[in-house]
Amino acid sequence: MTLAVDVFVRDADGEWRVLDVPEACDDSAGFESWRRTVWGSGTVRSLGARHLPVLAESDLFVEAPEVPDFLQEVALLRANLDLIATTTERPRGIRERRDQLESRLRTIEAAALRALESGAGVLIW
Asked: What span, in angstroms and rounded, lies between the C-alpha atoms of 19 and 119?
């Protein structure tokens, strides 16, 4: 099973609705195990991430006003790919792990940019 990243909006009653993923866009935010082994890892936490580590305990809702901060967190993690790849669980080689992480962070970033453009939030579940 994999984690999915989606864009969501809230209606007038505060209920959320997931928007369709645009054609040719990926929605994978990593493997289910990454909740703890990557996004909730000590390394990611030590870098100062505060959004993605939530996944270790629950699904992540980044509300619309928090999306710019979330994008900064994603950029921080992308800048530290080598550290994250070498200090988190690696079923494959470090290079493959780094490439997987980079791909998933690009997917998360693309969803966050779509959310920012439309005044929506980001959901990883």
From this structure: 12
d(CA 48, CA 14): 29
Residue 1 has pLDDT above 80, yes or no: no
Name the pairing type of β-strands 2-10 and 121-124.
antiparallel
pTM of full prediction above 0.85:
yes
Q: What's phi and psi for 52, nearest 5 deg?
A: -60, -35
User: For 29, how many CA atoms within 13 A lie in the half-sphere containing its CB?
Assistant: 25
Query: Looking at this protein, which amino acid is placed at residue 110?
Result: A
For 93-124, what is each residue's pLDDT tens digit?
888 989 999 999 999 999 999 999 999 999 99
Instruction: Please give, one letter per residue, the 3-state secondary structure of 69-95.
Output: HHHHHHHHHHHCHHHHHHHCCCCCCHH
